[in-house]
Each structure stands twice: as C-alpha cells, then as structure tokens.
Amino acid sequence: SSTALSSSSSSSSSTTLSLGSHRFAFDCVHPPDASTRALYDGEVKNLVEASVEGYNTCVMCYGQTGSGKTHTVMGSLALGGMQEPGILSLAASDIFALLEAKKSQVENQPQAPHPVDDTQPVPPPSSPPTFTYTVTAHFLEVYGEQVMSLSSPSKP
User: Fold this and answer.
1) Rounded to whole angstroms, how far apart are CA atoms 4 and 31?
2) In Å, how far are 3, 53, 139 from 50, measured between CA atoms?
3) Adjacent-strand bridge partners of 4
4) Is the pTM of the predicted complex or chain greater than 0.85?
5) 51 vs 58: CA distance, rounded Å
6) SS3 3
7) Residues 129, 107: contact at Cβ < 8 Å?
8) CA gap 98, 53 in Å, rounded
9) Is 70 exceeded by the pLDDT of residue 125?
C-alpha cells in the first residue's frame, strides 16, 4: 500500500494524508523541529483569546506514545538549562494577561459627569465600575478507553 502526504494548493493550507483508499485531512501539520511557541501562536492562541471572550474552548493533543504530547503541553528543559514553556504555561500566562487588560480597561473608563440641574439634588457619586473574573480549567488524559483527571488525580 502506498502512503502519500501532500499539501493542497488552496488558501486554507490544509494537508491531506492518503493511506491506501483512505484520505485524512488536517488543518495544519507542523514539522518535527517546530517550536512549542510556533505551535501555540499558530494553533492555540486564538482559542485562548476566544475563551477570554466567554467561549468554551478545548485543546486536544493526540498521538502515539513518545510522539511529544507531554513535551508540547508541559514544556521541558532545553539545552543550556533554559526552559521551553509548554502550551499550558503559555496559555495560562496569556489568559491572565488578557483578563487583567480587560479589567484595567473597564476600571479605568472615565465616569460620565452628572448633569447639572439646579432643581434636583446632586446624586451621590457612583462607585467606579469593577471587573471580576473566574477561571476554570480541566485537564484530562484519555488513555485507552479510560479518562483520568489530571487536575484532580483522586477523581476518575
């Protein structure tokens, strides 16, 4: 059986893999030497931004044992002792930076002046607007047909 990997010439930059009579389509295929940062910027960052806007998002890493899923998600120590952050760390940093920027934007909006009306008493000053947020995340591992929580290892 023949195996062919080909990139389509369309603007969607999708990639197809043919295995015999089966065809598989991928939105994107990164080369083995791609950095975690490049993967994050190209595939995950837009989901992080959407999650801060209130959308539910999911990132799933799939592959055979030893293919680099843990390295991609968790990061690792690189040559020279410098750490290469994983997509989890990059996402967490961006989530809180984006939320703090939104908070600053809301809380620093100028207050509307009270209309001057000599016939009405002056209303008390209003409280400045506040912005609060709650971040919830779930980390799951699917191995075989078992789903395990990585955020609460005691719970299946």
Assistant:
1) 16
2) 37, 5, 18
3) 18
4) no
5) 9
6) strand
7) yes
8) 10
9) no
Q: Which two tokens stand for residue 118?
A: 């000599």
Amino acid at 39: L
Q: For residue 106, give the amino acid letter.
A: V
Q: Which sign does the torsion angle of CA 89, 91, 96, 98 carry?
A: positive
Is residue 153 pLDDT above 70, yes or no? no
Taking CA atoms, 9 is separated from 16, 42, 70, in Å, by 11, 19, 32
CB-count exposure of residue 89 (10 Å: 0-12, 13-18, 19+): middle
- Helix and strand numbers, DSSP H then E, in the chain: 4, 7
Strand 146-149 to strand 75-77: parallel, antiparallel, or no bridges (unpaired)? unpaired
Q: What is the pLDDT of residues 38-93, one digit of tens each?
A: 999 999 999 999 999 989 998 888 888 888 888 888 888 656 666 788 999 899 99
- Residue 110 CA to residue 62 CA, distance in Å, equals 47
Smallest CA-to-CA distance from 92 within 52, 150, 142 is with 52
